């Protein structure tokens, strides 16, 4: 049985429930333990001005943990993966792994998989990106250069983000360091608090089923109004298809030119983070994988306005409804590509394509539901369609 002695700060790395596995004596210490537990998936890659103040818990720093008995909040045991001589507890990551949990499980508690992750040694091995390898730091348990989990790495940056505080007011101070920071992802089902305001924080989080629930009735209403304004019943579907084509183009333009705008000043970095940057920083944040209706309504209204200007009233209604339906499909597809288990070659290729955009080259591959516009405008990944590309994750 593997036994390890860890200071309490590193307990945050282990997928364990603080209250269940540590004997915390007083309420203040219990509260602090919960705060540290929140950081369990982000320690090691956080940029923080100051370490978390855990002086209240100093007397508990010599607690011993048996890795055999450590569980996370879902009752799972620690899952130890050895990469280039360093040991990682990847239990919190199993369900989030883009290639599925089984690909990791077959290598747990076994030989070093460092070369395998670089695409070497085994036929068909996936060459993991630098970002994917960097994300492992979140789950570091023991290695050749083990360090305290809460210690920030020396980077020489003028400003560092404290993820224990609302993050939106801070990102603008990163300046030219913002682009590198926002494209160094943190893998966790949760992300830090965005806003000071409870109201703003609540509207920034959205369940996936909210999208069809809010916008689905408007799609139906738009077709009813189109018919009322004289569009023949047989023409509703063709005009909806036209609308979906308009949306796919609209989707590409927004993603490429707005969501990936250059951000180096306080206000551009803040705007970029709120619009899209948060998704690259926290790509598995399940509460922020679809657009909040309060936010998407601005773009949807713009699409409606454009349809009314260009088309007659009845046709505009039908085209708008088709575009809105395409948006619903887009948002749900995007959620699925991050969290779903793909079961067809087409879905598998779409997932690979999108994750290539996240973890390899974020300056191309902007299409989510289709690569068509990337092909038209020359923003396909440079190795798209090659044998190397099919091996990448």
Structural class: mainly alpha
Overall tally of domains:
2
Biggest sheet, open or closed, and with what strands and sense?
A: 3 strands, antiparallel
Q: In which range does the helix fraction lie?
A: 40-55%
Indicate the proportion of strand residues.
Answer: under 5%
CATH class of the largest domain: Alpha Beta
- Global geometry: globular
Q: Strand order of the main beta sheet, please?
A: 3-4-5
Give helix and strand order, one letter per element, not per position: EHHEEEHHHEHHHHHHHHHHH
Write the layout of secondary structure elements.
Elements: E1 3-5, H1 18-21, H2 27-38, E2 64-66, E3 80-83, E4 86-89, H3 102-105, H4 114-117, H5 130-135, E5 140-142, H6 168-171, H7 178-182, H8 198-203, H9 210-228, H10 233-258, H11 266-281, H12 293-310, H13 313-339, H14 345-359, H15 372-377, H16 387-391
Antiparallel strand pairs: 1-2, 3-4, 4-5
